[in-house]
Specification:
By secondary structure, the chain is of the alpha+beta class. The chain has 11 helices and 18 strands.
Length: about 350
C-alpha cells in the first residue's frame, strides 16, 4: 500500500511538472519491477480519475506513432484482459494504459537522456579577483579574457545545439566559428548570440547598463523575456548596444571598438564617463574602496586613456587637472572630496 501511495504521488508530481530527477529515477525503477496486472489496473483507475481530459491520451497516440516500442504491455496479459472485458471496458482501459505508457515512457526518456546527461555535464566557474585579469580557453576553443571582478560560468562540454555561457562582469570573447551551434552569452536580462566573432561584453550586476561592443563578425543581442526575432538588434563592427536595466531599452551607437576593449591590453579608457562610473572601475582594478562625498562631483564627466602601470595616485592626479577635488588614502579606502 505504501508503494502504491508513493507511486500515486510520483505520478501526480509528474502530471503537474513538479517531479525531481531522483523521483524520476524511482518512477523509472517501478517500470522495470514485476508488477501484476491487478496493480496496473489500479494505477489505470487512479490516473483516469486524476486526468481532467483526453489530452494525455491524444498526446500519447501521437507520440506512440514515433516510437511504438516504449514500455510495451505484456501480450499475454493483454489478451487475457480482452477476453474478460466487454468493448466499453476495454476502450476505457486502453485510455488508462495509454496514460500510464505515456507518463512512464517520458519518465524513461527523462531518466535516460536528461538525468544521464546532467551527470556527465558539470559547470565550471572562473572568478577573477579585483586588481587582476585572466584568460581562459573554453571546451570549443573559444578564447575569453576576463576583467577584474568578473565571473564566468560554462559547461565542461557543450551539448544541445548551442554553446551557452553565463557572465557577470566584463569579458572579451574570441569565438571559435561553428555555424551549426551558436555561441550565446547570457547576462541575466540579455542573450548575445554569435557563430564566430570577436566582441566585448560589460555586464556587472551592480551597474545599471549592459554594454555589448563588436570588433569583428556579427552579433545578435536580444532580451530574454521577449521573442528573439521581434526584438533583436544586429551589430556590425564598431557598433555598440547599451541595455538600460531600469528602462529595459536597447540603444545602438557607433564607437571605436578597439578602445572599448583596450582594458585587455592593460590600459584604462574613459570616454565621457561620470566620476561615479570611473570610481567603480578604479575599485575593481586597484582593489580599493572609493568614496566620493559630494553628489555633484559624482556627476562630473571625464575622458582619458591610462596605462595600468600607473598608480592610483597618478590617475587621480591627472584627473585633478580637469576638476577641482582632493583625495586621501586611508588603508584600502580612497575618500574624494570637492575642493571649494
Amino acid at each position: 500500500m505504501d508503494q502504491k501511495i508513493n507511486l500515486e504521488e510520483l505520478l501526480l508530481k509528474y502530471r503537474d511538472g513538479n517531479i525531481t530527477v531522483s523521483e524520476l529515477k524511482l518512477l523509472y525503477s517501478f517500470v522495470h519491477s514485476k508488477e501484476t496486472p491487478e496493480q496496473f489496473s489500479s494505477i489505470f483507475q487512479f490516473l483516469w480519475e486524476n486526468s481532467q481530459n483526453d489530452f494525455v491520451y491524444n498526446k500519447y497516440m501521437g507520440y506512440n506513432k514515433l516510437n511504438h516500442n516504449i514500455l510495451p504491455l505484456d501480450s499475454k496479459n493483454t489478451r487475457k484482459h480482452s477476453k474478460l472485458r466487454n468493448n466499453r471496458i476495454i476502450n476505457s482501459l486502453s485510455k488508462y494504459a495509454a496514460i500510464v505508457l505515456f507518463t512512464l515512457g517520458l519518465s524513461w526518456y527523462y531518466y535516460n537522456f536528461i538525468y544521464t546527461n546532467e551527470k556527465l555535464i558539470s559547470y565550471c566557474k572562473v572568478q577573477v579577483a579585483y586588481g587582476s585579469r585572466t584568460k581562459i580557453l573554453l571546451p570549443d576553443g573559444t578564447s575569453v579574457t576576463l576583467n577584474s571582478g568578473s565571473i564566468l560560468r560554462y559547461p565542461n562540454v557543450f551539448k544541445g545545439g548551442s554553446r551557452k555561457v553565463y557572465l557577470d562582469g566584463e569579458a572579451y570573447f574570441e569565438v571559435k566559428k561553428d555555424t551549426e551551434n551558436p555561441f550565446i552569452v547570457n547576462t541575466g536580462d540579455l542573450n548575445i548570440k554569435v557563430y564566430g566573432t570577436t566582441f566585448n561584453v560589460k555586464s556587472y550586476k551592480n551597474e545599471p547598463n549592459v554594454e555589448t561592443t563588436l570588433l569583428h563578425g556579427s552579433v545578435v543581442v536580444y532580451k530574454i523575456s521577449e521573442n528573439e526575432k521581434s526584438n533583436q538588434i544586429i551589430l556590425a563592427p564598431n557598433e555598440q548596444v547599451i541595455y538600460d536595466k531600469n528602462s529595459r531599452k536597447l540603444n545602438k551607437y557607433k564607437v571605436d571598438a578597439e578602445l572599448i576593449s583596450i582594458w585587455k591590453n592593460g590600459k584604462y579608457y574613459f570616454e565621457n564617463e561620470t566620476f561615479a562610473e570611473i570610481a567603480s572601475k578604479l575599485e575593481r582594478n586597484f582593489n580599493l574602496k572609493v568614496a566620493i562625498t559630494d553628489e555633484d562631483l559624482k556627476k562630473v564627466k571625464f575622458s582619458g586613456l591610462f596605462d595600468k602601470s600607473r598608480s592610483i595616485n597618478q590617475v587621480l592626479d591627472a584627473m585633478k587637472h580637469y576638476c577641482r577635488f582632493s583625495y586621501s588614502i586611508i588603508n584600502d579606502s580612497i575618500i574624494i572630496q570637492k575642493k571649494h
